Amino acid sequence: MNRHTDIVIVGTGAAGLFCALKLPQDKQIIIVTKEDAERSDSFLAQGGICVLKDESDYNQYFEDTMRAGHYENRKESVELMIRMSPHIIEELVEFGVEFEHDGQDFLYTREGGHSEPRILFHADVTGKEITSKLLERVRERKNISVMEHCVMLDLWEEEQTCHGVVIEREDGTIDTLTCDYTVLACGGLGGLYQHSTNFRHITGDALAIAMNHNIRLEHLHYIQIHPTTLYSKEPGRRFLISESVRGEGAILLNKNKERFVDELLPRDLLTKEVHKQMKKDDMPFVWLSMEPIPKDEIIGHFPNIYQRCLEEGYDCTKECIPVVPAQHYFMGGIWVDEDSHTSMPHLYAVGETSCNGVHGRNRLASNSLLESLVFSERAADQIADQYKSLKEPVGNFDLSRYEKIEELKENYRNQILNEIERERKAQSHE
Fold first, then answer.
1. What residues contact residue 115 under an 8 Å CB cut-off, 6+ apart?
2. In sequence order, which residues have a C-beta less than 8 Å from that of residue 186 and are 6 or more positions away?
3. Catalytic site residue 267?
């Protein structure tokens, strides 16, 4: 069965939802997602969202982002993100997002790699607050429909132009959605890793599909490891201990409960130090102490972390907790320009799926939500400005190639992992 609409968005994270809300309301939009709409990594973001507080902080914010990215960032993308940040916060507040306040003013926190407190937050569930409010607004729009439990299997390409997607429904039915414009907002690839803070179903399918259509990709081996996740012997998704905890004063300790590092180093540098200490101690974790943070602040600012630690048998207001690095974020992806357009006509990519160069080799804490929203709005604006209705594809899409679904998905996973390894080896030889 084929269904035609104006615009298809793949993914219900912050990027996909914000893009849908910023597109013209006279366009019919279908959003498809692999799982329940709430099961995107955007919902898991704890720390917060960066913002340029005033012009006096611009140069330092720019430098912090560039330094964290090892100066491999695209400067024009970094500038766009920072300059657009106050506007994005205004938009979020209009959509109903609530940030912590100190009286009438916003309350800011600081995280690793930042020279100043410039991060807005909502307790320790900022991603959930932002993404859930965006999802509420999406569900209020009559021109937007959300199709859950639909897996994107392929793009519909005709004459080197994207005409939509091929999907697998929950009952195993294979359908096509044709459209004028397609936006990929599929998230990262943490599900490919044994230890990751990501949902297990986020497996980088869009990257393999793009590769098969000769769509330009960039820096697939730029994988960020978060230095502090709650240690557990049990398999599965790792629980993040937010950067904000260290920003508010928590310290890292070795097996003898001695401090061994500057906790506010950028993530990649801190991860190296943690791994080095684990090897030196012959331990599978290091200790994190929240003792420098007042108990009331821990419970008030980090209620989710406090509760999860209790569930694991640790009272973080009284004792150290074991933490270990785990895969967290993907800085590479489908190459896009400053308007989130890919190398294929009528195809856009936003959020963690895309690579617009903001993060360089390593992402600065709490730039992810901001970057996703800035560049998803730019995609929506360009689609609106340059809208051109495509005729429905004339060819008949051969769906028989998708009969062996699990084999296809496994091929996608292996394809991405092999490409990541190939890039790593190539770089090591340079």
1. 60, 63, 64
2. 10, 11, 152, 202, 204, 205, 206, 351, 353
3. yes
SS3 (DSSP) at 411: helix
Single-letter amino acid, residue 199: F
Contact 289, 253 (CB under 8 A): yes
Closest CA to 167 of 350, 346, 11: 11
The sign of the dihedral angle between the CA atoms of 358, 345, 9, 237 is: negative
Count CB neighbours of 382 within 10 A.
17
Per-residue pLDDT of 224-276, as tens digits, reads 999 999 998 777 788 999 888 998 999 999 999 999 999 999 888 999 999 99
- Cα–Cα distance for residue pair 306/312, rounded to 1 Å: 10
| Active-site pick, 110, 118, 238, 267 | 267
Residue 372: count other Cβ atoms within 10 Å of its Cβ: 32
pTM, rounded to two decimals: 0.91
pLDDT tens profile 311-365? 999 999 999 999 999 999 999 999 999 999 999 999 999 999 999 999 999 999 9
Structure tokens at 181: 């414009």
Residue 247: closest CA among 365, 369, 127: 365
Could you tell me which residues are beta bridge partners of residue 10?
A: 32, 184
- Find all residues with CB under 8 Å of 207, minimum gap 6, and list them: 189, 217, 220, 333, 334, 353, 416, 419
Counted residue by residue, the chain has a size of 430
Q: What share of the chain is helix, strand, coil (3-state, %, to 5)?
A: 35, 20, 45
